[in-house]
Amino acid sequence: MSGRSTRDSRREERLQAESEGDREERRKRLLQIGSAAVFLAIVAVAVLIVVSQSQTSGGDTELEDTGLVSRQLNGIPQNGMVLGDPRAKVTLIEFGDLQCPVCKGFSEEIVPDVIDSKVRSGEAKIEFRNYTIISQESIPAGAAAIAAGEQGRGWSFVELFYRNQGPEASGYVTDAFLTEIARGAGVRDIARWNSDRKSDKVLQEVRDTTAEAQQLGLTGTPSFAVQGAGTSGLETLGTPGSAEALEEAIEGAG
Fold this sequence. Notes:
Layout: H1 4-21, H2 23-38, H3 43-57, H4 66-73, E1 78-79, E2 82-83, E3 90-96, H5 101-109, H6 111-119, E4 124-130, H7 138-149, H8 154-163, H9 175-185, H10 190-197, H11 200-215, E5 223-227, E6 235-238, H12 243-253
Parallel strand pairs: 3-4
Antiparallel strand pairs: 1-2, 2-4, 3-5, 5-6
Helix pairs in contact: 4-8, 6-12, 7-8, 7-10, 7-11, 8-9
């Protein structure tokens, strides 16, 4: 089991990577905000320019933390909605809703430690399953993630969505937003992704995993389950409050 010092060290390294790797991007955003405050007379013109550029370029430069997500997942296999070595003996399953703010918090503070300690090493793989409980907007969001998984970018989509998540059921989950996330996640064939995310097969998968979570008695998101040689089928974990608890469950299931 990873000690607290090791886990803290990983967290410090991740935060340092974020500050260094995204410094230029954040600086640009701060300069834009500062310029708007100082030069009030040209704000309207500046906004029109930004909007025009977004419409012609696809708007992917507006996303936050694309570089951070890329570094976090770099070198780890992605297959469908599974992150990690397919031969890993233990599977950790996250039932989540992409609109869920608690899921966002887990994706930023807890799941990265588990990825670093257990998934990257090949001890476990982690699978995302949609549990759409917030609003109807969660369904197309979940379908878009699955469609990205069809091109090996499922976890990249999930993590980038969380990093750019808006207020629950506020209408932000539009086709344009989902397309920006897909592009930022590295989905190569956007036309295919668009077709896949609207297909009956993919939409049915969203419904099926939601029904599965309900049948397992899960009442909120994110909820976790684990499966391995040391478990009797799929063993539910609820919502553990720390990376250490998830790591212990993985070790017990191995």
